[in-house]
Structures are given as C-alpha cells and as structure tokens.
C-alpha cells in the first residue's frame, strides 16, 4: 500500500514551496508575472503557425520526399478552384472572362489564374487528332455538301443558307421516295439514306433552335455549325475553357499567395476571391458559383478551428469561473485560481515559442486542453485550504497542510498526465509529437503555478482582506459527506450497474468505426464542401488526385494505357492528349484527300441582305416536305416542331422587331461561319504537333523544367471509404510504386496520424501503469486504479455510438488523454 514516509523528499519540497509562497509572496507573484510578460513577448516575436497538413509529418519519410520532389517541379493549380455553373455555356464563359480579369490584376493575392488555354495552335492542326474513320467521314461530307458549301460561300446569309438546306432535303427525299417506289430491300442502303436525312436535318434543327432563342429575351449565341459535319457543336472545351467531364461546370484555377506568419495563411486570398466573385455575380444573377479546393477547405478549417478554439477557451474559462464561484461561495479566490491558470498558459506559450517555435493545426488546441486539466490542481488546493482554515488554522499552517495533503496527489496527477502527453513524442507523426511535447510541459507549468503562485496570491489576499472563516459553514459540507456515505454504502448495487453499463456499451464496439472523410470535419453545408461534392458528381475528378512522373512521352503513354484499364481510375490527364498518336499517317491522308477540298474554301466578305418574308416562305416549303413523316424519324419530328414553334413565336412579335433580331442573328451566324471555314482552310496543309511548340501555359503544366512529364490520375471510387481507398492505392502502385500527389500524401498522412494516436494511447497507458506500479508496488491496487479508466473508455465509445458520433481525425486525440 501507499506509504507517505517514502516521500520525504516530496514533503520537503512542498514544505519549501509553502515557505516560499508565504514569506516571499510578493516576489513569487512579481517573478511569475514578469516571466509571463516575457513569455508573451517571446510568443509575439517568435511563435509562428504551420497550418499545412504537410507540416504534420516528418520531412524524411519516403512518401513525403516523393511529394516534395513532385511539388518542387509542378505547381499546385487546384488549391483554389472557382466552380461556375449555368445552363448556358456562353454565360459561363462570359462570367469566367469577367472574373478572371479581376483576379489577374491582383498578383499580390493570386500568383496564377488559369481558366482557359489558347487553342489557336491546335485549331490549325485539329485534323491530326481525328481517328482515320472520322477523317474519311469528313471527306465524304465535304464531297457530298460541296455544292451546298460553295453556294453559301458565294452568297453568305441566313436566307441563302435555308434555301440550300431546303434543296438538300428535297434531294434526300427524292432518293428515299425512289427507293420506296422501286421496292429496294437493301437494309444498309436504307440505313445510309436515313443517316443522310438526319445529317441534313441536324443543321436545320440547330439553326432553327438558335433563331427561336434569338427572338426571345437575354439571347446568347451558340454555334450550330458543327452540325454541318457532325451532330455536336463547338463546346467550351473546344474553345480552351477548363470544364467538367459533362461540361456542366466551368473551372477557374487560382494559385493563392500564402502569408506564412498567419495561422490562416490563405485567408486574405480566399476572402478576396469571395468578394470578387460576389461583385461579378451582380451582373450575372443566373450564375451559380462557389469556391473550393484543398487550400480553401484548409483555410475554412483553420478559420473555424481558430474561432472554435477561442470560443471553447472563453466558454471553458467562463464556465470554470462560474462553477468555482458557486462551489466556493465567493469570487476572489476562484479568480485568483483563474489568474494562476492564465499565467501558466502564458509560460506554456513562451516555452513553446522557444522550444518548438510554431503551432500546427493539432497543437493549436493545447490551450483548451490545459484550461480543462490545469484548473484541477487549483480546485484541490483551494478546497483543502478552505477546510483547514475552517478548522481554525492560520494562513501559514493551512498552506502547509494543504500542500502536504494535496501536493503529492497533484504531483502524481501532473506526472501521469504529462506522461500521457509525453508518450505521444514517441510516435512518428510530427503533429502529435509537437502536441504531446507542448501539452505535457504545459500540464507541469499549470501544476507549478497552482502550488506556488496560487498560494502566494492567497497569502497576499488574506493578509489584506483578513477574511473570517465560520465553522457554521460546516453543516452543508457535513450533509454532503453523509449523503455520499449513504450513496457508496450501496457499493454492490453501484458495481453491478456499472458492470451492466460496461456490457451494454461493449456491444457498440462491434459497430464502431473510424470516419476517414476529412470533409465531414467541416461545418455542414459550407460552400467549399458543397462545391467539392458538385465536382465529384459532375467532373469525374476531385480536388484530391494522384500523380506519376515519367521521363519521356513514350513512358507517359505506356503508363496511361495501364491506368485506363484499372477499375478505380476515372480520368487520366497528361501532355500525351495533346500529341496525336498517328499524326504522320493523318497528315499524309489530309494532304492526299482533303487538301484539294479545303484549300479552295473562301467566303465572300459581304452578307446577303436578310428578308423575313423570304425566310417565312422557305420555312413553309420545308414544313410541307416534312409533314406526314413525323412518325418515321425523330429528327424529322423535331425539325417540324421547331418550325411550328418559329411560326407561333413570330406571330407574337412585331414584324420590324423580328426582322431586326433575325438580321442580327444572321450576321453573328456568318461571322462564326467564316471562322469555321478559315480553320478548315488552315488544315489543308497542317504541320505536325511538336511538344516544344505547344503553348507554354499548357506545356508547363505537364512538363517540368527538369524534363519530367506529369500524369494526373483521378479516382472513380469514393476515396473517403477506407476499402475503396486501399483499392485505389493498390491499383496505382501496380503501375508505379513511386506514385505521389495530394491524394496519396493525404492517405499516408491520415494513416500515420491514426497510428500515431493509437500508439500514443498505448504508450501512455504503458507509462502510467509503470508509474502507478512504482508508486503503489501492488498489482491489485494498480488494477483497481485502472479499472475506472477502462470502464470510462468503454462508456465513451458506447455514448458516441448512441449519439451518432464517430471517431475521426479531430477527436482521436482523446486516446492519450483517457
């Protein structure tokens, strides 16, 4: 059993502390305050913040080295992603242009802004990117529509265009009618006729759709000309904009500048970006836009953490003060205890500034931890001191008995708690190591402040105020003691109930699991999380991606081929997509077959005057030819509906206004057409795509100055699901064991952090068992001391499961604390 005679050294130490606090109270208080002042000064001068997740891990780890080598060569362009969403591609592009212009004039906040790449280099070579069947199809269409194109080129204008479409439809109908009349049964021939019919109608449908839209309000032009050669239209991606896989989202990538002296290093850039977005959005009310990305999520996390830590600290101090005042039925001594605690916090900050030099996103919470744990020492001291004074002891005697009676308990409590935190220093995760170091020493500073500074403050206060302690105040305390005696007299029932609760809570251990999703640590409904999920839904990509490096284009293609066969890979991006695989063969085909058709393309400069009356007549002819065929062809039915819609809409608009709007549409349509013909003509004799000639903005994104090629890999699985994450990493490493990137770095850091907390808890428990055994020298006593800790831990997990709480990267810190 515990023998106090074995602790004569501690008794002498606390006797010395009592004499120092009593006889030299002013000196103790003055020195404590001076040290606190110096600590605050050192903190202001030296303490910095490291808020990056990369700052939580040791720099020498292999995966960290790989990530740093990758980041040294390639800039993180997805730390801040502005997501633009609207039904109109033109509106999204217009908004992006307006916002990017404002971002680009703030180099103090954004070092780079990327939303669009110059595609002019590729426009003169786009035929080299087509597959051989597509080249043959283009040749066929140019030959089939040669007369159509020549007629439009000679007299460009909306009236001439629709007349030529009418002629093409007539030709197609004659062919179809002749086949029916002769009883042809060639299925392939019939299929080809239908295909030609649809190709003719694609252009008609797209043009009428645009005309109908041009007659409405808030019209924006969308090119229909791609329908001349295929069923699509020139997309935002074709124009060089950064868009999602389904092109429903447009992205603006901004690289924010970091203020390394601030806990929220990207705060200025993030806040300014949001202000500029709000400013531009006033002119685009229909646009949905939001800010996300790793740096944005991290900044929001840091701001929330900072606010929460400050709020939690204030609530903790306020709550402790209130409980103190209620329990001790006074104000002065509780405030003295809180003052001592604040002094200890100041010492801890100064010590941290001198020994570590910074706080990270984990260690920043140490003040809240110390407030909750450090005040315990003061409670024991003031409670015992009050009892001694009520028994009639003078100040000196009461302090002596208080420190002798509580000192050893406080000392053991401080040592075991400091050991629990100190054990975290033995882990491999730097963030946990620093938290353990800071909090461990902080607990010792709190104990020193409570056993030395608090008695000195109490001495000064009592010498000045000379309070009178009445023994009549014993009755409530005696009643409380009797109540506790009666309660614990039913110890068998208490033990039984506790065991039942442990068994019930143990059932939840089977269903308890760890939440690896960092997005769940964010405040629900925040903009950054919302738009990160929008990207996942629409883009086939995430802000978290993997990266592989290669030494040559051939190696890039080899790795891409392997990656695209893996089930966990959604999308792969590299410079290889910009260099056609078979461009030499395509170039030869273009020169031999397409050059004669393309080189003669020329569009007259002046448009034919527009006539609404002539247009109406042409539409009536086309509509007549389409009637009765609606049920046979979907395209025919759609064309007929669009023409009917035009007639109805035209009746509701003044003829002069309709003529004006359609004339403007005609002009815009043929400005676009001339550009298309010019691009086709440039491709009559294209040059081979050379990596060295690709626009620098694109080249720098995928090729480093050191000559390394970048492959960016996006997952098709939920990377926050542990099993799917492991599959993703396994697939990646089957191609390249040195794979890196933000996703891989985050996965490894998360694993290391989890292991660090678990190992820290194991080390803490081991150290405490050893310490308690050294103190009590009795295994049975050690077991009974640790039994409440084990039971409390199981209850904690049970309550978490009952309330829907999960262990995560934030609350896992409780393991060493338990």
SSE blueprint and pairings:
Layout: H1 8-23, H2 25-46, E1 48-50, H3 62-73, E2 80-85, H4 89-104, E3 110-114, H5 120-123, H6 132-144, H7 146-154, H8 158-182, H9 187-214, E4 249-256, H10 267-281, E5 288-292, H11 294-328, H12 332-355, E6 358-360, H13 366-390, H14 395-422, H15 430-465, H16 474-488, H17 491-507, E7 514-515, H18 527-538, E8 546-550, H19 553-563, E9 569-573, H20 583-598, H21 612-626, H22 634-651, H23 655-682, H24 696-702, E10 709-715, H25 722-735, H26 742-776, H27 779-803, E11 807-808, H28 814-817
Parallel strand pairs: 1-6, 7-11
Antiparallel strand pairs: 2-4, 2-5, 3-4, 8-10, 9-10
Q: Would you count the extended β strands for me?
A: 11
Integer tally of domains: 2
* N/C terminus separation: 25 Å
CATH topology name of the largest domain: Multidrug efflux transporter AcrB transmembrane fold
Query: Architecture of the largest domain in CATH?
Result: Up-down Bundle
SSE-based structural type: alpha+beta
- State the fourth-level CATH superfamily of the largest domain: Multidrug efflux transporter AcrB transmembrane domain
**How would you characterize the largest beta sheet?**
4 strands, antiparallel
Mean pLDDT: 83
Q: Indicate the proportion of strand residues.
A: 5-15%
The best one-word shape is: elongated
- Residue share in helices? 55-70%
Strand order of the largest sheet: 3-4-2-5
CATH hierarchy class name of the largest domain = Mainly Alpha
């Amino acid at each position: 059993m515990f023998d106090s005679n074995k602790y004569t050294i501690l008794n002498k130490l606390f006797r010395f502390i009592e004499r120092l606090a009593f006889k030299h109270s002013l000196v103790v208080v003055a020195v404590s305050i001076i040290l606190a002042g110096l600590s605050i000064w050192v903190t202001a001068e030296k303490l910095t913040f490291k808020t990056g997740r990369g700052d939580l891990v040791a720099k020498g780890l292999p995966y960290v080295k790989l990530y740093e080598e990758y980041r040294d060569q390639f800039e993180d362009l997805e730390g801040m992603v502005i997501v633009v969403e609207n039904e109109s591609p033109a509106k999204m592009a217009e908004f992006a242009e307006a916002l990017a212009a404002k971002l680009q004039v703030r180099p103090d906040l954004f070092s780079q802004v990327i939303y669009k790449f110059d595609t002019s280099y590729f426009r003169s070579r786009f035929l080299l990117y087509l597959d051989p069947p597509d080249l043959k199809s283009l040749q066929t269409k140019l030959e089939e529509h040669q007369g159509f194109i020549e007629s439009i080129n000679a007299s460009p204008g909306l009236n001439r265009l629709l007349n030529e479409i009418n002629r093409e439809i007539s030709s197609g109908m004659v062919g179809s009618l002749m086949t029916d009349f002769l009883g042809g049964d060639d299925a392939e021939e019939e299929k080809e006729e239908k295909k030609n019919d649809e190709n003719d109608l694609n252009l008609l449908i797209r043009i009428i759709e645009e005309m109908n839209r041009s007659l409405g309000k808030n019209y924006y032009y969308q090119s229909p000309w791609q329908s001349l050669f295929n069923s699509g239209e020139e997309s935002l991606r074709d124009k060089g904009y950064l868009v999602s896989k389904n092109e429903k989202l447009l992205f603006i990538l901004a690289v924010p500048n970091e203020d390394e002296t601030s806990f929220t290093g990207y705060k200025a850039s993030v806040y300014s970006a949001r202000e500029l977005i709000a400013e531009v959005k006033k002119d685009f009310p229909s646009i949905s836009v939001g800010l996300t990305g790793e740096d944005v999520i991290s900044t929001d996390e840091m701001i929330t953490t900072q606010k929460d830590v400050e709020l939690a600290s204030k609530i903790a101090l306020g709550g402790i003060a209130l409980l103190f005042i209620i329990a001790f039925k006074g104000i002065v001594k509780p405030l003295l205890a809180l003052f001592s605690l604040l002094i200890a916090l100041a010492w801890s900050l100064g010590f941290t500034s001198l020994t570590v030099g910074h706080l990270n996103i984990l260690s920043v919470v140490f003040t809240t931890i110390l407030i909750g744990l450090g005040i315990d020492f003061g409670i024991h001291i003031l409670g015992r001191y009050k009892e001694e004074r009520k028994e009639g002891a003078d100040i000196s005697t009461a302090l002596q008995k208080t420190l002798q009676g509580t000192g050893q308990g406080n000392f053991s409590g401080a040592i075991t708690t400091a050991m629990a935190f100190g054990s975290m220093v033995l882990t491999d995760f730097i963030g946990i190591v620093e938290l353990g170091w800071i909090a461990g020493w902080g607990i010792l500073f709190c104990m020193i402040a409570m056993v030395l500074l608090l008695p000195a403050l109490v001495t000064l206060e009592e010498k000045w105020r000379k309070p009178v302690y009445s023994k009549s105040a014993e009755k409530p305390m005696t009643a409380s003691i009797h109540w506790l005696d009666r309660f614990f007299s039913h110890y068998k029932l208490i033990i039984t109930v506790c065991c039942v609760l442990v068994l019930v809570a143990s059932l939840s251990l089977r269903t308890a699991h760890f939440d690896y999703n960092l997005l769940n640590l964010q405040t629900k409904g925040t903009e950054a999380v919302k738009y990160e999920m929008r990207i996942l839904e629409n883009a086939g990509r995430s802000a978290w991606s993997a990266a592989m490096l290669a030494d040559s284009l051939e190696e890039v293609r080899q790795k891409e081929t392997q990656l695209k066969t893996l089930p966990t890979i959604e999308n792969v991006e590299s410079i290889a997509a910009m260099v056609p695989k078979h461009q030499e063969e395509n170039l030869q085909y273009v020169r031999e077959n397409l050059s004669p058709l393309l080189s003669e393309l020329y569009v007259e400069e002046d448009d034919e005057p527009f006539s609404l009356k002539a247009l109406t007549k042409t539409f009536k002819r086309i509509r007549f030819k389409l009637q009765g065929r609606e049920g046979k062809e979907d395209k025919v039915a759609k064309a007929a509906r669009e023409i009917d819609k035009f007639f109805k809409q035209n009746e509701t608009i003044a003829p002069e206004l309709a003529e004006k709007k359609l004339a403007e549409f005609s002009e815009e349509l043929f400005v676009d057409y001339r550009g298309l013909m010019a691009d086709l003509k440039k491709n009559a004799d294209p040059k081979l795509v050379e990596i060295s000639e690709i626009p620098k903005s694109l080249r720098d994104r995928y090729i480093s100055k050191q000559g390394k090629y970048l492959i960016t890999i996006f997952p098709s699985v939920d990377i926050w699901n542990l099993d799917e994450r492991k599959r993703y990493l396994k697939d990646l490493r089957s191609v390249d064991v040195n794979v890196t990137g933000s996703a891989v770095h985050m996965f490894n850091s998360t694993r290391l952090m989890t292991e660090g907390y678990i190992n820290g808890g194991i080390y803490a428990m081991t150290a405490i068992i050893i310490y308690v055994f050294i103190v009590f020298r009795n295994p049975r006593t050690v077991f009974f001391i640790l039994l409440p800790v084990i039971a409390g831990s199981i209850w904690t997990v049970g309550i978490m499961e009952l309330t829907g709480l999960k262990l995560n990267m934030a609350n896992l810190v409780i393991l060493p604390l338990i």
